[in-house]
Structure formats: C-alpha cells, structure tokens
C-alpha cells in the first residue's frame, strides 16, 4: 500500500517494470512529484520504492486490466534489453508485453499509454542527417535484434488508438541508454579493449542517462509534451518523442574520454565476420546491430526542448557514467567474456575486436578437438 496520502489532483500513473532499472527510477521520481496523484507500481515482484502502490502482476497476463481500474496513464518499461536473452524468447516477451498492456489499457479505459522504445528505430546509416528529426522515417532493420522488437512494438502503438477509441499512445525514443542496470550492445562496445570502427565512417555519439529519461517521461505523462505524429502514423492520436543529451560527441572526443583507441576495418570484413559469428552462436546480436556503434543515429529532441526541458547529463558525463558502470567487464562484438577468454580478447584487441572474437572461437574448437 502507498505510504503517502492520495492527492486530489493530477493523474494516476502506472509503471510497468517498476521494481528495477529505468522503471524503478521513474517510480521514484513520480512518487516525489507534487503533480502526480498516485503512482501504481507494476512488476512480477515488489520493489523497494516507497510512496507507491504496489500491484504484483505479470504484464503479459490478460488479467492485467483488472489492476488498471483507477489508472489515467500507464508507462510501459518492462522490456527485456539484455544482449544475452534468447532472441525468440525476448521477441515473444517484449511484443506480447506491449500488446497486453495496450489491450488491458483499452479495456480499463486508460486514456494515455506511453511505450518506451528506442531512437534506434530510425536506423543507423552513414547517410543519416545529424541530427535526425523526430518525424524521420523508421529505417531500422526488421530482423531478430532488439531493434526488430521495438519496430513491432511501434507498429502496435500506431494502430492501438484505432482499436481503442479515446486512447492516446506516445512512443518515447531514447538515445543509447546509460546508467545503473543498463546492459546493451552499445554499452558492451565500450567494454571492448579497442573501439571498433568502419573505414571511412564518421561516428557521432549521443547518449541518454536513465535519470534524464525519467524527467522526460514525467513531462510526457503530465501532457506537457506534444511530440510528432510521424510519417508512418495513420492518425494524430499517436505521437513520438525523442530523448537524449544535447548534441553529440565526435570520435576523437570519445577516444579521449575512454582512453581507448579506435581500430578501423573495411565494412565487408567487420560486418561479414560479425554475421558469421552470430550464426555460429558466438555473438549475441545480428551484424546489423554493429551499425549502431559505427554509423550515426543522433536525434533532435525538439519536442522536449520546446517545453524548456534540459537533460541533467551531457554526452560526456553520460559516457563517463557508462564507463563507471562497465568497469572491469570485457566484451568482444557484444559478447561478454571472462577469465582466459578476456585475456585472449585483450591481446587480440591490438589487432581487431572482431578478429578477437574469431580467435576465441578457434581456441574453443581446438580444446574440443
């Protein structure tokens, strides 16, 4: 039960995944907000956030609607992002979760659903404008990656208001998330002994700290951000909002902050080797996900900026937070290593991160042989 008296004004906001990660951060922030009447924390176990009403439930349970009877806005943050998750199980979990949240919200007459996806849905390409406008086309690849999950979730978000009249849906698209508990392909890129690059590319780096995501979501649930309809949206009751630190970092700035040098390889070598390793089950994500560490996908957070919102972390401090979070970890092409493999990968990193992963595979085969 809530330990705070129910306020007479402001929306009742439900948060899925409220016990951990970004959901916990948002629940903590909204519980302290004088503009939120009540926070309903939804998760499959109770968390430690005070001042909220806990309702233990699996968000994929069709009975979820019964837990939303008094809710005005629901923010869906119960999304599996780990690179280690089985791709099929993750896809089922993430897409079914979003679908159940939308259906349950419609049945309970929740007026506003906020789905947190990623700016990665815009795709990472060498010809991307820097920054990308919020209404840019969604060019992310519909493959087995996490980005494929987010694209399916956005498909559901865009049609849900047609199925549930009166419902408004907002997709919030953060840049590369950093902060406590964030473990992604981008964060693992900085666990590598060398920063992988593609010859001729000009990376631009933009991050979004989970604290800034929470402050942006607070404005969204209070209805203070209009967002953009997007080119794919069939109606105006769907909108999208991009979130991230202002501007971007050039590659030389990233190398200075991390103390790591960039190693460039031809695109065919980088992506071809990575794809073979993925098919062998050595690396956790398709080669297309490496696009997000070599090509730009910087977003212009125009909708938030129009409200006067400012992130508390710039890209440099966000990257520093990422480095603190990943200190002592080692990964090659997204695969986290330990023990002798980490030592081997560090040595191989003097040649190339991708070749390092191949060296690990060869060593394993020799041991088995």
What does this protein look like?
It is a single chain. By secondary structure, the protein is an alpha/beta fold. It is built from twelve helices and 15 strands. It has helices at residues 21-31, 87-107, 146-163, 185-189, 210-221, 251-258, 267-279, 291-294, 302-305, 315-326, 339-348, 353-368; strands at residues 12-16, 38-43, 53-56, 73-76, 112-116, 168-174, 176-178, 195-198, 204-205, 207-209, 238-243, 249-250, 262-265, 330-332, 335-337. A seven-stranded parallel beta sheet has the order 3-2-1-4-5-6-11, with helices on both faces. Strands 7-10 form a two-stranded parallel ribbon. Strands 8-13 form a two-stranded parallel ribbon. Helix 6 crosses helix 10 and helix 7 packs parallel to helix 12 (353-368). It is globular. Residues 1-6 and 339-353 have low confidence and may be disordered.
Say how many strands there are.
Answer: 15
**How far apart are the first and last residues' alpha carbons, in Å?**
59 Å
Query: Could you give a short account of the major beta sheet?
Result: 7 strands, parallel
Proportion of beta-strand residues: 15-25%
Which structural class do the helices and strands define?
alpha/beta
SSE sequence, one letter per element: EHEEEHEHEEHEEEHEEHEHHHHEEHH
Gyration radius, to the nearest Å?
A: 21 Å
Shape: globular
Question: pLDDT below 50 for ≥5 consecutive residues: which ranges?
Answer: 1-6, 339-353
Q: How much helix is in the residues? A: 25-40%
Strand order of the largest sheet: 3-2-1-4-5-6-11
Please work out how many helical segments DSSP would assign. 12
């Amino acid at each position: 039960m809530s330990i705070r008296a129910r306020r007479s004004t402001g929306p009742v906001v439900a948060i899925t995944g409220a016990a951990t990660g970004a959901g916990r951060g948002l629940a903590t922030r909204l519980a302290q907000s004088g503009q939120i009447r009540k926070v309903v924390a939804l998760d499959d176990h109770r968390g430690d956030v005070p001042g909220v009403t806990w309702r233990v439930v699996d968000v994929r349970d069709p009975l979820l609607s019964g837990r939303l009877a008094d809710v005005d806005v629901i923010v869906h943050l119960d999304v599996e992002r780990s690179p280690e998750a089985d791709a099929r199980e993750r896809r089922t979990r993430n897409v079914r979760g979003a679908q159940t949240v939308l259906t349950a919200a419609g049945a309970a007459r929740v007026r506003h659903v906020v789905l947190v996806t990623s700016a990665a849905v815009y795709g990472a390409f060498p010809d991307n404008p820097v920054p990308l406008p919020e209404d840019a086309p969604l060019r992310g690849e519909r493959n087995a990656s996490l980005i494929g999950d987010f694209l399916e979730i956005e498909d559901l978000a865009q049609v849900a208001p047609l199925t549930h009249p009166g419902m408004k849906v907002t997709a919030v698209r953060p840049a590369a998330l950093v902060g406590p508990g964030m473990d992604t392909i981008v964060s693992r890129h900085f666990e590598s002994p060398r920063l992988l690059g593609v010859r001729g590319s000009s990376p631009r780096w933009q991050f979004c700290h989970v604290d800034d995501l929470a402050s942006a979501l607070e404005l969204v649930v209070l209805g203070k951000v209009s967002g953009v309809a997007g080119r794919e949206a069939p109606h105006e009751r769907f909108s999208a909002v991009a979130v991230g630190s202002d501007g971007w970092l050039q590659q030389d700035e990233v190398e200075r902050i991390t103390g790591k040098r960039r190693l460039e390889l031809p695109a065919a070598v980088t992506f071809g080797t990575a794809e073979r390793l993925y098919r062998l089950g050595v690396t956790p994500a398709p080669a297309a996900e490496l696009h997000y560490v070599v090509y730009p996908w910087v977003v212009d957070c125009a909708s938030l900026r129009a409200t006067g919102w400012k992130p508390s972390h710039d890209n440099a401090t966000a990257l520093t937070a990422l480095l603190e979070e990943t200190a002592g970890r080692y990964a090659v092409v997204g695969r986290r290593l330990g023990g002798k493999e980490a030592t081997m990968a560090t040595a191989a990193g003097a040649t190339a991160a991708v070749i390092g992963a191949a060296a690990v595979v060869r060593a394993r085969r020799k041991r088995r042989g």
